[in-house]
Amino acid sequence: MSINACSVYPKSHIRDALELVPKYDGHNIPIWQFARTCKRAKDSIPLIDEALFVKMLRNKLSHHAYLAVEDETHETVAKFLESLKKTFGPDWSANYYRGQLSIAYKKQGEHILDYICRVKDLVTDIIEGDQSNLNRKLTHIETHLIESYALEAFYEGLPSKYRVELKAEGYTNFTDACAKAITIHNRLEKEKTRYKNSRNSHEENLTNTNGNTQTRILQRDNHHGPTDNTNAFDGTRKICTYCKNVGHLFHECRKRQYHVNNQRFDNNNNVNNNNNHNNNSLLTPSKTGNQFEASANGITRGQGNVRLIYPLECTPQECTSFDQTPMTCLSSNSNHLPFEVP
What is the pTM of this model? Predict the structure, then answer.
């Protein structure tokens, strides 16, 4: 049977599978990395050549790793790796790997395939740890529970963009979720590359635009630069003698024109005010003095000048009766003054 198998599957297949397995001395690489490559190589050969493949795997070991399995004989790859893990594997239980799986996440800049491999390695460690503790192979239900737990941890460890798209697409199991996560990763990377290219082209356009603008400014400055003719007069040398500002002349000064217009407006207002005052003075009679002037008819006509009072002299013979005492008055509204006798 082995002869027929060898005739159907040449030994070159085993040699090709062995090329996938690196050298291992117990310290150069982690044991889980060596175990993963051994399992991958085993899947590429028929099961009938697994015992021969294990014997040839021993040639990949050196130093302490070879000494650990030198006196042992293994029929399967699983037994061969289990013997190496007992010596070089970490002394951690399956619960430790469950804890590591619960906090696993995709690191920034990490490829999605590396994240998937880390999760798968933790799942393998959990399964092997439980089998070692139970001393038996796990059932399909027990393996399915571990994969369900790994699926939840894998989903929670993805970035938000991955979770949104993966939830929208849907998934059935851990393997399906990993495949769709790879597709999402490739799509997001394409979008990132497209955005990066568009941003670079936009920055190049801005750089070219700024360079052209600076060139035009330099050309314009050179065009308006000073000439050899000292009598030439350009706009940058104009100085106003009124406001002392640069850029215009006296007759072009807006400030001067503004002041002139305001002065004319003030003069017109003064003339109008004077005319109104004169007209009002003609209509209103002027007032002189500080007393009212009495008219001939006894009617008050306004303030008038004070009239002087002159005393009258007489002899006692001329005034024989008190009823004929002479009186003097200023006006009809004035107070009566008694006659003064010297």
Answer: 0.49
